[in-house]
Design a protein that fits this description.
The protein has helices spanning about 15-35, 45-55, 80-90, 135-150, 165-170, 180-185, 195-200, 205-215, 230-235, 245-260, 310, 325-335, 360-370, 385-395, 405-410, 430-435; strands at about 35-40, 45, 65, 70-75, 100, 105, 120-130, 155-160, 270, 285-290, 300-305, 320-325, 350, 375, 400, 410-415, 420-425. By secondary structure, the chain is an alpha+beta fold. The longest helix is centred in the middle third of the chain and has 19 residues, at about 245-260.
Length: about 450
């Protein structure tokens, strides 16, 4: 009987597994430089944790079951509830602000498609205890630095909104149900104009209101151009019936763009009145990132959730966060030509002239690895010609050849695999020679961006 990975799940083989590891390493390094501390949360949580946040509807999207203790549990479908639970447990001992990041593996029982699998990883950044837009800007700035460290400069755009502003738009236009109006805005890029108007009609907008909204949104696809942001926000604030909470949302957006300008985000930050995010727990600022080429779905989503910690039994604490998925990030890296393994392979391949004397290689393998070099040797007792082919296949920089005559003289043969030049080197001088020729090395040093 043959087995294969389940639908919606992936195996990662070389070199993809290495590229992913380097990608996550880069995320970790940038997040740590930005003052985020890494945390880990369980892969299995109480199903009630997610019911509390999203209601019974979440159950259909989870890999949930009753465990041997009779408890309803689930493989975690998202990380924010786990982080909120953890914060409630730690609130008394964690000085504010709390800046956490995590790289969880998550599971959702959804229809697999490009950029969406049933098992996936995310880069999650969260800040607790900051009531102002300083938290949003810190998260967006850190995310920009992550994406640029991965080699994606110029490939992405952040689009931001405030749900209070979106709600105010709907109320001013006569929307009878906020949820339906938000769904229409969220689905607009996927709908033709007639289907979008039908969604608006269902939300309670008459034809005049639909026409007014269409005129306002004209030219905002992909975000309002930076030079028009203030004019657009001013226009919105003057809409008849624009409620006070929505006006507060506009003040929030103005503060966010001012802070973003100070942080040097002007070129990647745009106001988009259609960004509302589907998750109900967002309370004000929401944001998403998109490929500038427009070929793939949102790279990430996030926003402010000032009431979630309270929902889980904690004090009222402002919070903000985002989650960036590995699948869409991989697609963008591939599109940008950045999904390829490091060009450097092994530093040294230790070969023996006589396959029966393979043990001669072991002290060299041990000591060179301890020095920080990437080193391997033959494990199959193959003849020298096959060992040399293996060294070339694995892109070794140098071949260290051990033969009976060399061992008797206290020397080894060091061969440059790129040039073919080789020389006899005293055994006691080999490690110093390699330190001059190679920096220790591709396994221990800071990985660069994929590719």
């Amino acid at each position: 009987m043959r087995f294969q990975a389940l639908r919606g799940f992936r195996d990662y083989l070389p070199p993809d597994a290495q590229i992913r590891a380097d990608m996550f390493w880069t995320v970790r390094q940038v997040a740590r430089r930005a003052g985020f501390a890494e945390v880990e949360t369980p892969s299995l949580e109480s199903l009630d944790l997610f019911r509390a946040k999203s209601g019974e509807g979440i159950v259909a999207e989870t890999f949930s079951f009753v465990d041997k203790g009779g408890r309803e549990v689930t493989l975690t479908p998202e990380n924010t509830p786990s982080l909120a639970r953890l914060y409630v447990e730690r609130a008394k001992v964690e000085p504010l602000p709390v800046k956490w990041f995590t790289l969880p593996k998550l599971w959702r029982y959804e229809e697999p498609q490009s950029g969406r699998t049933r098992e996936f990883s995310q880069c999650v950044l969260d800040i607790f205890g900051v009531p102002g837009v300083e938290a949003e800007i810190d998260i967006l700035l850190t995310t920009r630095q992550i994406l640029e460290a991965l080699g994606l400069a110029g490939r992405f755009m952040f689009r931001v909104n405030d749900r209070r502003v979106a709600d105010g738009m709907g109320r001013s236009l006569g929307a009878s149900e906020t949820g339906a109006f938000f769904r229409a805005l969220d689905r607009r890029p996927k709908l033709d104009p007639s289907a979008f108007r039908e969604e608006l009609r269902r939300a309670g907008l008459d034809e005049a209101a639909q026409e007014r909204l269409a005129g306002f949104l004209r030219g905002t696809d992909g975000g309002v151009p930076p030079g028009r942001t203030e004019a657009v926000l001013t226009e919105l604030a003057q809409w008849p019936g624009f409620p006070a909470p929505a006006a507060e949302g506009i003040r929030n957006l103005r503060a966010l763009f001012a802070q973003g300008s100070a942080a040097g985000l002007d070129d990647v930050l745009a106001y988009d009145p259609t960004i509302v995010r589907g998750l109900a727990y967002y309370t004000s600022t929401v944001f998403e990132a998109y490929d500038r080429g427009g070929k793939i779905r949102a790279l990430f989503g996030g926003g402010r959730y000032d009431q979630l910690v309270e929902l889980f039994g904690g004090a009222k604490v402002p919070a903000c966060g985002l989650a960036m998925g590995d699948q869409t990030l991989e697609i963008l890296l591939r599109e940008a030509g950045r999904w390829s393994p490091p060009s450097r392979g092994l530093d040294v391949y230790v070969a023996v002239v006589d396959p029966q004397q393979g043990a001669l290689a072991l002290p060299w393998v041990r000591d060179l690895r301890s020095d920080g070099f990437v080193v391997d040797h033959d494990l199959l007792g193959r003849p020298l010609s096959r060992q040399m082919k293996d060294a070339a296949r694995r892109n070794a920089s140098f071949l260290l050849l051990l033969g009976p005559e060399e061992v008797a003289r206290g020397t080894v043969t060091l061969r440059n695999m790129q040039t073919g030049r080789q020389e006899a080197v005293a055994a006691g001088d080999v490690r110093a020679a390699l330190r001059k020729l190679l920096r220790p090395s591709s396994a221990g040093e800071t990985p660069g961006p994929p590719g």
